[in-house]
Amino acid sequence: MKRNLHQAISAAVLQLLRPLMRILLRNGIPYGTFADLAKRVYVRVAMEEFGLPDRKQSVSRVSIITGLTRKEVSRINSLPEMEDSGTVERYNRAARVISGWVRDKKFTDSSGKPADLLLEGKGATFNELVRLFSGDVPARAILDELERVGLVKPLSNGRIRLLSHAYIPSSEEVDKLGILGTDVKDLITTIDYNLNCEAGSGLLQRKVSYDNLPEEVLPELRKLAAKRGQSLLEAMDKWLSMYDRDVNKSVRGSGRRRAGIGIYYFEEELQEGGEKR
Q: In 3D, which of 166, 169, 155 has the Cα closest to residue 97?
């Protein structure tokens, strides 16, 4: 049974690593760098999540769990943090501002569409929008970010127009790669939960796919997925915002949890017989 489990895990890891290796190789990251990063994570997870009850986790135990030497575990523990939270934080703040602009009636016009906003002044201004949905970050910093990625346009009358209902990082690789860790981590965390939870208590994890589609239908499928997906996300965003204490100060309750829903589209070319190219 254990052998079959290890085989299944190995096969799954080979599949999920393939697109990751493609990204690493395309961006000039050699195997040695990836191996060092993997060691860091092995040690961190073992230190933080696999200790014994009521006992401080030791270097020796982490060495046994991970298969690394005690010397290597100690070396890795002494390394400085490498996390880049700046890109993710910028993404979150900009996304919240756009979300508020789209759904808060204070910032929409008579037809329900996002209104063109003055930067400052009384009433519904861009400054007020940022204050409500992005905390203490200067409005100019958020505006610069939205302009940089092409999501807003200054008008000749001094107002600012929203061009898209969704925040997507710019074409710069650094911005897009900054989201790689969080989005893929969320999906794998959900899968991990579902593998270990009791029957009937799993988290939402669904997909639909067919493997013999003609190429000509894909453009229509992409449009349909984008339209339906965006509609669902906007509806969920509206519901979640009612209970987020950063947005709605009147919400009461215990603890602090992060929760959400992600949607993605995928396609790949198959050879005759179903093999991947």
A: 166
Going 195 to 200 to 201 to 204, the CA torsion angle's sign is: positive
Query: How many residues are recorded in the chain?
Result: 277
What one-character-per-residue DSSP string does 33-91 give? Answer: HHHHHHHHHHHHHHHHHSPPTTS---HHHHHHHH---HHHHHHHHTSPP---HHHHHHH
Cα gap 260→138, rounded to integer Å: 26
Classify residue 122 by its DSSP letter: S
Taking the C-alpha atoms of residue 180 and residue 186, their distance in angstroms, rounded to an integer, is 10
| pTM exceeding the 0.90 threshold for the entire prediction | no
3-state class of 153 per DSSP? strand
The CA-atom distances, in angstroms, between 62 and each of 34, 35, 81, 113, 192 are 20, 17, 19, 55, 21
200: left (phi over 0), alpha (psi -120 to 50) or beta: left
Q: Which tens digits make up the pLDDT trace of 187-205?
A: 999 999 999 999 889 999 9
Calculate the alpha carbon distances from 12 to 9, 81, 110 in Å. Answer: 5, 29, 51
